[in-house]
Write a structure and sequence with these properties.
Chain B: It holds the Pfam family ABC_tran. Chain B: It comes from Halomonas heilongjiangensis. The complex is a heterodimer of chains A (about 300) and B (about 250). Chain A has about 300 residues and is mostly helical. Chain A is about 70% helix and about 5% strand. Chain A has a two-stranded antiparallel sheet with strand order 1-2. Chain B has one domain: 3-Layer(aba) Sandwich (Rossmann fold), CATH 3.40.50.300. Classes of the chains: A mainly alpha (about 300), B alpha/beta (about 250). Chains A and B meet through helix 6, helix 7 and helix 8 of A and loops of B. The structure holds adenosine-5'-triphosphate (ATP) and magnesium ion.
Chain lengths: ~300, ~250
Amino acid sequence: MTMIFGVPLAVFMGQLMLGLINGAFYALLSLGLAVIFGLLKIVNFAHGAMYMLGAFATLLGMRYLGIGYWVALLLVPIVVGGLGMVIERLILRRIAHLDHLYGLLLTFGLALIVEGTLINVFGVSGSSYPTPAALQGGFQLGFMFLPTYRAWVLVAALAVCLGTWYVIERTRLGAYLRAGTENPALMQAFGVNVPLLVTLTYGFGVALAAFAGVLAAPLYPVSPTMGSSLLIVVFAVVVIGGMGSILGAVLTGLGMGLIEGLTKVYYPEAANTVIFLVMILVLMLRPAGLFGKEA
Amino acid sequence: MSQAVEKITEYHDLDGAEMLRVSDLHAFYGESHILHGVDFDVKRGELVTLLGRNGAGRSTTLKAIMNMVGRRTGSIVINGNETLAMKAHRIPRLGIGYCPEERGIFASLDVEENLLLPPTVRSGGMSLDEIYAMFPNLYERRRSQGTRLSGGEQQMLAMARILRTGARLLLLDEITEGLAPVIVQALGEVLVKLKSRGMTIVLVEQNFRFAAPLADRHFVMDHGRIVEEISAAELPSRRDELNSMLGV
Ligand SMILES: Nc1ncnc2c1ncn2[C@@H]1O[C@H](COP(=O)(O)OP(=O)(O)OP(=O)(O)O)[C@@H](O)[C@H]1O
Ligand SMILES: [Mg+2]
């Protein structure tokens, strides 16, 4: 049997694969955080709750409305993203002129309310969501077995990340977003409806989180607390990558997933803390983050 | 997201009418009361200057017209439309281009993206080719990051990008500040061309030698008010008076 530093190849590749899947979720979530932070300057603490709402809506949609996975993949991000726009329009906009710390506290409070409400109704135990029929089974690659659904998650997450990067960096709409991030007042003076741009941007960031939630539903137990535990790690990823860089958020997300996977192979005890160790190191050596601009 | 740029507002040129009339304009930054009843008007096709010492309130007047300050009272009529209650993003769609004192070139955009950024507000703007013909430097550097340009090139970019939008009223704040004489001269030629195309221009200037031969009328500001109006014809006889008002 092929061994890599004393570990069977299949085990090694399996853990790497799991790490990459986790990394795909980190990438999707930190991308949304970066997009929101860019224009609104708010650290969106409700991001984990929106991810959880995405997974929950998928579960409840199937249970009570008979909505299948594929429809949910399209519908849930739109619905949860719409909820995000309502939150921005009715609540966040009112405090936009205050210190951005208030936005952080407010979104944190919102997350607690959403989570608490769902715990009250559904309890904390997780429910499982079936893998869609078309994505069951897997590929025998020789050195490892690759479940089809995991491959799909990786492809779908990367495609959405790449599409987002393209829109932001290569299109006119993205130019509005980048320019609005730098100087919103001047964009208004050019005739761009910046408040609307802000609402749509928040909605889009939230929709990304909800999309991640739909992808996660067949993979992890769906419970009201699934978002808050993940969000802590995602914030560490964001700190490592540096706020405000789109590509940085995606690459750091994937990279941190891989590092986590590798740690599971060689020193499983540290797997849950390794990202925080990297975060401390990065903060000491490059406080603005790997891809952040030095302020 | 394309609704972020709403439909172009159509309006009709009213021949011989005023392009801009500012009456009893007061403006505040938070608690500070900066403009204390500014009154002036600009006719279609005219080029007027706002002169004054540092801190007189010239930039604030342009910003107040664009609804970029805090509270405003009084009246600002643009091409027959009262704009005091208008949202900031609607004002440029009346056909106004604003070039801020600090230029406002975007670092995250390259030169061509900066040029293409301001949405079209009216038909009849200059094409990208025409703009590159007017500013050949910008063409050569069109793939450079906006803020990598020299000060003069950034100034040209800040001017050029509002010419594309079809704006007919240009508010230009200190466009010659800190530029070499050759570039100042080039900008003067650009202004002459724009005037011959029928543009209406409000020029905030420190460089009076630059502004004098271009302008139809001069307004002198002090302490947030217009204190004097001097026409181009009166200028030779009132030059000393003007110099003492400007403190030069
Ligand atoms: N953002 C602001 N907040 C508070 N006060 C301001 C602000 N901007 C300008 N001011 C004050 O408003 C007054 C007028 O400033 P303004 O920029 O209009 O002057 P100006 O005539 O353009 O002069 P210059 O550009 O030569 O300095 C000044 O006293 C200035 O200190
Ligand atoms: Mg000024």
